[in-house]
Amino acid sequence: MIKKKISFTLNGELKEFEINPNERLLTLLRRNGYKGTKYGCLEGTCGTCTVIMDGKAVDSCIVFAFQADERVIETIEGVGAGNEPHEIQKALIDEGAVQCGYCTPGMVLSAKAMFDENPTPSEDYIKVQMDGNFCRCTGYEKIWSAMKKLSVSHKLR
Amino acid sequence: MKIKDFVFASRVSEACSLIREIGDSSYLIAGGTSTFFVSSKNSKVAIDINRIPIKGISKNNDIFKIGAGTTINDILKYKASGWVLDRVALRHVNQQVRNISTIGGNIARVFYWSDFPVALRVLEGTIKLSGISSKTVKISEAFHNSTVHKDVFKGSLLEYIEIPEIKKGMGFGYTKESRTSEAFSAATAAAFVKVDDGIISDARVAIGAVLPFPVRLFDIEEELKGTKAESLIIRDLNFDRLNKYSLLPREGMSMDYCKHLLRVKISDAICDALKEAMGGCND
Ligand SMILES: Cc1cc2nc3c(=O)[nH]c(=O)nc-3n(C[C@H](O)[C@H](O)[C@H](O)COP(=O)(O)OP(=O)(O)OC[C@H]3O[C@@H](n4cnc5c(N)ncnc54)[C@H](O)[C@@H]3O)c2cc1C
Fold it and tell me: Residue A132: which of B8, B46, B95 has the nearest Cβ?
């Protein structure tokens, strides 16, 4: 199998990667240390591998690595920091919306793409925008509630 | 399906030359989400067509022009009077898949579950393809059956789709039954009606998911035409006509259940279309 080079902006920095043409973005990111992007269903259903590509939430398990060439990618490593979480992360913590935490990076990125586009989403809008992220612990109520509170707080305006 | 190499095309003509050059092992990649469901003995050379400016929706007079590279999410978010494809887009998998998959990819290769071909069969309009030659084909012809469809698309790049707006006195209904929001459709139905002075003057009905390729139900359409535009008419429709199709029940359904489900979905689609045509809101 041939190897080829691609480059894209990852969390604000232009990076070059050598890839196998059949490789998915998820494996490329993880083998380069971006392990906050989680392995899940590997077929575009569960949303745990969500990253933001050109401002839109996508499942990195179904995107070929080459499709990221010349694009802008954001992973969870680029959102907030341990001692300075992003407002979305704070909202999830405050609401007790994190249990095992496996789905949380994907959830945060879907929420970020949503709030970047619309800082005050309605409840219905939140549910449609977050419909690709499964959570097997919380039952979703607290996640939605965190998003709703963040929306009415206008903190991301 | 495995990808052994990839190239990028930035213009329609470049993509067409690449298709010719690479031949049978070429595979156009728009969103690339179909690659999970396509099996191929030989690995393919991907032609990434995302850089080609065939994206976006515009309206000119009464016609919507939808670039083949328009994502399902952009179809969902587009707002204009007479625009109805957002109703189909809303039922398409989830946000992440809607953000990357395109209408071109959805209709260029038709799987039994494909959402948009069923809707387009009743909306009618045309598609514009480029390849060995440029051609504009009526949707009714391109989607006549799977063999014709394959021939029309072979070696070609779909540039855009044009559909007429739904005007006053017209209505569109779309129903899809799936086990979960992420699951493939178990039964899809779409209906278009035109009502003049309380009478159905035109009707188109199509079904999908229960067959390998969507079909128009011409018998039922004829039955609808000329009748009074009221939802009660669906009680009198002769659904025994569905018996002539070799239906493929999904999700472990019995044949009886499949027919029943289909009947419900068709009826709902017709009722929704009638409601809209009679002036009700159908969002
Ligand atoms: C988890 C999951 C669930 C799904 N559920 C559904 C569902 O419920 N309903 C549904 O309809 N689909 C579903 N799909 C399938 C898929 O998302 C859609 O069919 C999608 O619209 C395909 O678009 P794409 O841009 O990804 O196509 P691609 O995979 O890029 O291409 C699909 C086919 O079309 C060809 N093609 C693409 N663009 C063009 C063009 N411009 N001209 C000529 N040929 C072209 C490609 O060569 C390929 O053969 C699902 C997919 C996933 C991963």
Answer: B95
- Residue B282 pLDDT more than 70? no
Nearest-CA residue for atom 2 of ligand 1: A44
**What number of CA atoms fall less than 13 Å from residue A144's CA on the CB side?**
14
pLDDT of B281 > 70? The answer is: no
pLDDT at B232 over 70: yes
Residues B148, B228, single domain; the answer is: no
The answer to whether residue B282 sits within a structural domain is: no
The partner residue sitting opposite A57, judged by closest CB among B35, B93, B96, is B96
**Under 8 Å CB-to-CB from B85, ≥6 apart: which residues?**
B64, B66, B75, B78, B103, B116, B119, B123, B163
> Could you read off the pLDDT of B45-56 as tens digits, one per residue?
999 999 999 999
Extents of the domains making up chain A: 4-78, 87-153
With the most atoms of ligand 1 within 8 angstroms of its CB, the residue from B33, B160, B251 to mutate is: B33
Ligand 1, residue A59: give the atom nearest the CA: 53
User: Domain spanning A4-78: which CATH class is it, in words?
Assistant: alpha beta
- Number of structural domains found in chain B: 3
Residue bearing the CA closest to ligand 1, atom 34: B105
Within a domain: B283: no
Domain covering A87-153, topology: DNA polymerase; domain 1 (1.10.150)
B180 — pLDDT class (breaks 50, 70, 90): confident
Interface residue A45 vs chain B (CB under 8 A): yes
Q: What was the pLDDT predicted at A120? A: 96
Ligand 1 centroid to residue B33 C-alpha, Å: 5
B10: Cβ contacts below 8 Å, ≥ 6 apart: B51, B52
Q: Over range B14-43, report the average pLDDT.
A: 94
pLDDT for the residue numbered B283: 46
CB atoms within 10 A of CB B122: 25
B91: domain CATH number is 3.30.465.10
Q: Which residues of B touch A57 (CB under 8 A)?
A: 95-96, 99
B40 at A interface, C-beta within 8 A: no
Q: Which residues in chain A land under pLDDT 70?
A: none
